[in-house]
Design goal:
By secondary structure, this protein is mainly beta. The protein has two domains: 240 residues, Sulfite Oxidase, Chain A, domain 2 (Alpha-Beta Complex), CATH 3.90.420; 116 residues, Immunoglobulin-like (Sandwich). It contains five helices and 22 strands. The strands form five sheets. A six-stranded mixed sheet has the order 14-15-22-21-17-18, with no helix packed on it. β14 and β15 form a beta hairpin. The longest helix has 9 residues. Bound molecules: the ligand Nc1nc2c(c(=O)[nH]1)N[C@H]1C(S)=C(S)[C@@H](COP(=O)(O)O)O[C@H]1N2 and molybdenum atom. The site of molybdenum atom has 6 residues, from loops.
Length: 368
């Protein structure tokens, strides 16, 4: 007899010299990152925003789609898109980052979607706040977790499932949490969760459930796959680990000059240039960005632009550099007001989650 275990295997870590496999490439081809030159836009155009889809984009008819709110509530109800659109409308610019960003650069490499540093985007999400809906439903004072269910279905490490993620009730009740039906002023695209998704500002991507069809309040902790098995920071396979939650601070450099096709090494003409990029944190406002041009041996402060995008959006930083002929490795590191700062040495966990190791941008400055 064949079982689900025949089609999917447990998570694993690559061997010391094991190259990226065709399976990892298959994931990378579906789930694309932001082209780093698109760090130039305050608001990432929808087609340039990174993408992560565990299973398939489900077939959802927006006209027939409904959202069911049930579980530990006094008044369960069902709403369609038209009813959600009649409710108060709010927009937030939110930096979304996949919890696995940076994974493929770790040693040893956790085998999964092989992100380098590009699993990020900053879009404007419009929808209706979740808190009033939960209050109107009469959420139980004993609520522990709120489970969000997507319309997509698959199997992962032998477990067949709808994509489901729970938030602790206190986090689900934060006023910035949105049921979003628009991205950058247009209806959600199929790949970004059309017609409805959750937006949880400050949290890694896995919390922002796409193709949202159900919200269930629980008075017991949720032990579904994406909370209890995936998205935990573990030292090894036996470690129960701790849940992945908010985004650690990170800064990226917008690669300067022009690229070599194969290596993507940057080519620059000598002289004065302004390096820039973006910085964000889901814990607290970004407090500083420092820049290195020598692969992390020395650091100099960058200038931060005003936080015009609001509390949940990335900020631009700038740094004036006089490029002399030679080879350089550029990088930037962010710190936030909670005291967190990007590490120069890798911190490792088995899933490669919440990794914010400093980026390395190889640059060749040509002779005069
Ligand atoms: N229903 C559902 N929601 C989901 C996912 C998914 O596979 N199914 N992927 C999650 C993950 S891991 C990330 S990083 C974000 C990515 O959102 P984006 O593709 O809109 O950038 O969606 C999250 N929401
Ligand atoms: Mo993700």
């Amino acid at each position: 007899m064949t079982t689900m275990d025949d089609v999917s295997r447990p998570g694993r870590v690559a061997g010391p010299d094991e190259a990226i496999s065709a399976e990892e490439l298959q994931l990378a081809a579906r789930n694309h990152g932001i082209p780093l030159e698109a760090l130039r836009y305050d608001v990432t155009p929808a087609g340039l925003h990174y993408l992560l889809i565990h299973y398939d984009i489900p077939e959802v008819d927006p006209a027939a789609h409904t959202l069911v709110v049930d579980g530990a509530v006094d008044r369960p109800f069902t709403l369609d898109l038209a009813a959600l659109r009649e409710r108060p409308r709010v927009s937030h610019r939110v930096t979304l980052e996949c919890a696995g960003n940076g994974r493929a650069l770790l040693q040893p490499r956790p085998v999964s979607q092989p992100w380098l540093v590009e699993a990020v985007g900053n879009a404007e999400w419009t929808g209706t706040p979740l808190t009033p809906l939960l209050r109107e439903a009469g959420i139980s004072p004993d609520a522990v977790d709120v489970v969000f269910t997507g319309a997509d279905h698959g199997v992962e490490r032998g477990v067949e499932q709808d994509y489901q993620r729970a938030l602790p009730a206190a986090d689900a009740l934060r006023e910035e949490v949105l049921l979003a039906y628009e991205m950058n002023g247009a209806p959600l695209l199929p790949q970004h969760g059309a017609p409805l998704r959750l937006i949880v500002p400050g949290w890694y991507g896995m919390a922002h459930v796409k193709w949202l069809r159900g919200i269930t309040v629980r008075t017991e902790p949720f032990d579904g796959y994406q909370n209890a098995v995936a998205y935990r920071l573990r030292r090894d396979a036996d470690d129960p680990g701790v849940p992945v939650t908010r985004i650690e601070p990170r800064a990226l450099v917008r690669p300067p000059g022009f690229p070599d096709f194969m290596s993507r090494t940057r080519v620059l003409r000598p002289g004065r240039c302004v390096l820039d990029g973006r910085a964000w944190s889901g814990h607290a406002p970004v407090s500083s960005v420092e820049v290195t041009t020598d692969g992390g041996q020395t650091w100099a402060p960058a200038l931060l632009d005003p936080a015009t995008g609001g509390e949940w959006a990335w900020r631009r930083w700038r740094y004036e550099w006089t490029a002399e002929p030679g080879r350089y490795v550029l990088g930037a590191r962010a710190a936030d007001a909670s005291g967190r700062r990007q590490p120069v040495e890798q911190a490792w966990n088995r899933g490669g989650f919440a990794n914010n190791l400093v980026q390395r941008v190889e640059v060749v400055v040509l002779p005069e």
